[in-house]
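Reader question, answered in our methods column.
A reader sent in the components of a multi-part assembly and asked whether the whole thing could be modeled at once rather than chain by chain. We filled in our standard form and ran it. Here is what they sent:
COMPLEX SIZE: three components
ENTRIES:
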Amino acid sequence: MAAPANTAKEAALLRPITGVRPGLILGSLVTGALAGLLFFSWGYQIKNDIGVAGINRPVFWGFYITNFVFWIGISHAGTLISAILRVTSAEWRRPVTRCAEAITVFALTIGGLFPLIHLGRPWLFWFMIPFPNSRGLWPNFRSPLVWDMMAIGTYLTGSVLYLLLPLLPDMAILRDRAMAETPASLKARLFSFMALGWRGTTQQWHSLEAGIKVMAVIIIPVAVSVHTIVSWDFSMTLAPMWHSTIFGPYFVVGAIYSGIGVLMVAMYLLRRGLGLQEYLNDKVFNNLGLLFVAFTVIWTYFTAAEHITVWYGHEPSEMAVFWERVSGDYALVFWGMILVNTVIPLAVLSFRWGRKPFATAVVGFGVLIGMWIERFLIVVGTLRLPRMEFTVGTYSPSWVELGILVGSFGMFAMLYFLFVQFAPIVSLWEVREGDHIAGSAAASPEPVTEEAVR
Amino acid sequence: MTDPGWTHAAFAKPSDAQDALERLAEAGVAASEIEVRSSIPLGHEVCPVGPQVHSRVPLMAVLGGLMGGTIAILLVTLTSRAYPLPTGGMPIVPLPTAGVITFEGLALGAILCTVATVFFECRLPRLGVPAGPFDRMLADGSIVIAVRSDRVPSQWAAKATATAPTESQ
Amino acid sequence: MTRWGMVIDTDRCTGCGACVVACAAENNIQTVGEEEAHNGRAMHWLRIERHYEGTFPDVKVRFTPVLCQHCAAAPCEPVCPVYATYRTPEGLNAMVYSRCIGTRYCANNCPYTVRVFNWHDGEWPEPLERQLNPDVSVRPAGVMEKCTFCVQRIQDAQDLAKDDDREIGDGDVQTACAQSCPARAIVFGDLGNPASEVVRLARSERSSQLLEDLGTHPSVFYLRGGE
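And here is the structure of the entire assembly that came back:
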C-alpha cells in the first residue's frame, strides 16, 4: 500500500507552512532580535576596534575562536545523520534527515562568521582569497587558516546543495498543493520557484537518487576533513597541550557528539512545538540515544587518552596547563564538563527509560554546554600559560563577546524558525517512501528487501 | 504539425500503474511516448518496459573530482613557486599542505559536478511549465502516467482513478 | 651572506629598562595606559624578565631582556594566512603591517610570546606626535607587531654604505636597544661576518639560546654563567 499518503499525519507537518502560526512568528521575531544583538555587538566592535573584546597577550584567542570551533562542530550533526545513515541504509533516519541537514547549514553559516568577527581588520578578510590582483597579495597555502577557508567553503557549498537536492521533491509537493488551492498566493509562487520545475518523472528520480547517494558519500570525508583542519589550527602550533596528534580524530568525534546533542534538543522542541510525535517518535529518539551513548564513550576515551599521556610525559609547560584544568583556576569548569559530557549521558542514556524524548533532550542540552566548555578550555586554557612563564595571563570576556555569543544562538534559532515556516522539517517524500517500503514488506508473502524494492 | 497533446491517468497503487504500463507495451507504445510521474521514487516497481535509464552522476562525480584536484594542485604549486616567500624553514611547496588543499579541491569539484549533472539530467531549472491535470493528486501520492494522445490504446487505464487529456504538454 | 643577530649578556644586564624605552621611542610604539597594561595589553617589543636564582642568603636576580628572536625556523611564519610575516634573505623575521589582517595566529605560535598586537589605535596627543620617528610607520588597530631588529637603521646603514661604495662594517648598525644600554649588555651585528663582535661573543662558552630544544634556530644568543 503506497498512495494515497497518510494525509492526516502529513497535515501536522504541513501546518506551519500552509497556515500562519502566531507562535512561530513570535519566535522568529524574538530570536531575530537576539540575532540583531550579534550584529549590533559586532558593529560596535568594528567601529571601536577589536580592543573592546576581552582578549589580550598572551590570550590572543578567546570566545570568538571557541564559538567558531563550537559551531563548526555542531554542523557535523547533519552529516552524520543524513549521510552516514543514508550510506548504511538505516531506515530510521528518514524523519530526521532534513532537520539535521538544516542544523548543518545554519551552524556552518554562523560558524563561518566567527573567523571574520575575530579578525583585527575584518574588512580585509579578502586578502585570503586567491585571485589575481595588482597589490601583490596572495594567501599562504601553508597556513591552517587558509585550509580552514577552503575546507569550510567546500563543506558549506556541499551542505547547502545536500539540503536543497532532497528538498526539490518536497517543494514540488507543496507547489502542487498550493497551485491547486491558492494559485495566486506568494507562497505558491515561492514553492514554484524553489521546486525548480521538478516533475517527478522516472528519469528525474533516478538522477536525483544517484546524486543524493554520491553526495552522501562525498560529504562524509569532507566533514571529517573540515573538523580535522579546524583542529589543526591548534595542533599545528607548538603551544603546550595544543601540539597533540590526537586532535584530528578528537575534534571530529567531539563535533559529531555536540551535533547529536543539538539535534536531540531540536528534535524534542520540534516534536513538542509542532506536534510531530508521529514522525519524531520514541523509536527515533531511542536509536539516537544509543548512538549518543556510543559517542559519549568514544569522546571520554579520547579525552582520557589526551590527559593521561600529558600527565605521564610530565613535560613542564604542558603540566602547567594540565593542572590548571584538573585542580587550578579552571577545575570547576573542567569537572563540570566531565559531569555533563560523560557521567550524566552514561547514567541516563544507558537505560531504555533514559532514551525517551525529554530525557535525551536534557542530556543533549547538557552536552551542548559541556562541549562549549571543552572548546573554551582548549583555547583559553592553553593560551593563558605560554612556554615563557613570565608572560602568563588571564582572560575575561567583555560584553561584546557575550553579546555575540548569545546573539549567535539567537541567529541559529531564528534561521530555524524561518526554515520551519517555509519547508517541511521532516522529509515528506522520504518518509512516504519508507512507509511504502514497510507496507510492501508487510503485504508481500516473501520477504521484500530494500534492494528488490528499490 | 500540431502537438497531439498528452492523455493523463492517475493511479492509486503502483501495481495498477505497472499494469497500465504493461498494456501500453503490449500495444506497442514506445517508452519515449510515455511519462511516469510520482511523488516518491518507484523506479523499480513502476517503469515503462524498455531500456533501463542510467544516470551519469557517479562518473561525472569522479571526473569533477579529478578536475577539481588538478586545479587545486596547480594553484598551490604554480603560484607559490612564482613568488616564493620562505616561512619557518619550510619548503615553498610542502607536500602535506599541498595535499590538504588538493583534497578540498577534489571534494569541491566532485560536489559541483554531481549537482550540475543532476540538474542537467533532470532538465532543471524549468520554470513556467504549466500544471498537469492531476498534479494535486500526485502531491497526495498518486502515480500519474501520461501518454501521447494519438498513441493511446483502449482500456490501458482500466484501473485508473481518473483520466484526462490535455491539449499540449 | 649577511645574517643579522644579537648577543645579550645577562651577567651585565642591570634591568634598568633603558632598552625598552629606547625601543619604544625609536619604533613609534604606542603607550596603552595603566588599565590596558594591567589587562595584558602593554605594547613593548622588548620585556625584561626577572628570575631569582639561588636560595637565601645567596639570592641573585638575573634580568633577561626578551625580544623577537628572529628564528631561522620561525613557527610564527608559516601560520600567517596572508604572508604578513616571512624570512628575509638577510635573516630577519619581517613584519609586513599592511598585509596583516589580525588573525593573531602568529602570536599564538610564538613560543617566546614576543609578539604584541594593536588592540586600539595609538594616541599621541599634541605635541607628542612630534616625537614619532619618520622612518617607522605608525601601526593601526588590528595589526600585529614585534621587534624588527630596527630594520630602518639597517636600511639606513646599507644606503650609506652603498653611497660610499663599501661594505657595511661591524658596528655600523646599532639597534636602539644596543645603543642605549648603559652596561653595554646588548651587541648587534652580522652573524655572517666571522670578524664581527657578535660572532666572537656568540661563540663564547657562556653562550646559549632560549628554548633551544624547540629547534626554532633563533638569532639571539644569551650569555650567562660567568661571575
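What stands out: Chain A has a mean pLDDT of 92. Residues 17 and 379 of chain A are 42 Å apart (CA to CA).
Send us your own complexes using the same form.
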